[in-house]
Predict the structure.
Amino acid sequence: MIWNASKPKYSSYSSPPPQPKYSAVKKIPFTSQTFPLYLAPMAGVTDKVFRQICKRFGADVVVTEFVSAEGIFRRNQRTREYLDFSAAERPLGVQLFGANATHMAEAARQVIDWVAPDFIDLNFGCPVNKVVAKNGGSALLKDCACLASVTRAVVRAAAPLPVTAKIRIGWDATSINAVSVSKILQECGVAALAVHGRTRGQGYSGEADWHVIGEVAQSISLPVIGNGDLFSAQDVARRRAETSIAGAMIGRAAMSAPWIFQQIKAYLTSGELLPGPSLEIRWQIIVDHCIAQVETWGAEDPAMRAMRSRLMAYSRNMPEAKALREKLQHVCAIDDVRRVAYEHLARNSVPAFAA
């Protein structure tokens, strides 16, 4: 059994050892023997605390929430706060978005100087209107000349640090161009490419098109990381067998079950399908997440209000999920979460944990 309920504070899995800062010889972890699991960058989700949780559960590579190159270029302090990370999170990439090649290149230089990440990641996939309206994110899938200009500028500015990119398969169903875009990115010097199997027009609805992801993986020599509708270890194993992907990127599934990385690794290695942690341990993880979030923010009320959406995600696949969500959407303190946890465990005849 992977999860040990007898010890609190994530003792059921080990923390990765601290890693040194970037050096010119550091590589993105792709070899013929590895199949790295990425935590997908998600705005408002993949902050420092959650990245550490996922790393402890086996995520191989993490990326920051997307960061505005214009904010960095203008040395905006709030933007700079998104760059905070710990050594235990390495290898870690900082994801930038923007459409001005000069500003993107300068932002990359400043990020490298400030925090020394292991790689720079370019966001060419974000579908959010406020990003697309500024010709950022997936908007560049419609402007390949600008996409190429931005990529070349950042690759030159970041060298010898690797630069990766994330794309969607196209702007909409009538303009699926992931294969041609991937070839451009390869020519521009990108070291690896993540492909989300949806168009910008789909947002997060419909199904991810893994046929297109497979075409991209077959068309270029870069490592391709597949992303989209990977909700279980079996999903990852099936897509790995069907395509030539070199790694997998897990997004929404990790929000409700960060232990999915451990499950995927066990299944790919031995075929063993690990159960999820017990209800008691799930609540311990949730409470510990809240504690770490409050410590990071330095103020309980705003931290816990910000945690509400995260708590909604954790409640999925738990008994009485709907009733739990109704309670968790009103929490303002860690003790509120503890109280909900104790009541929930009691109703499900599970001994309360020490938190």
User: Anything to note?
Assistant: Strands lie at 37-39, 61-63, 67-68, 92-97, 119-124, 163-170, 192-199, 224-227, 247-250.
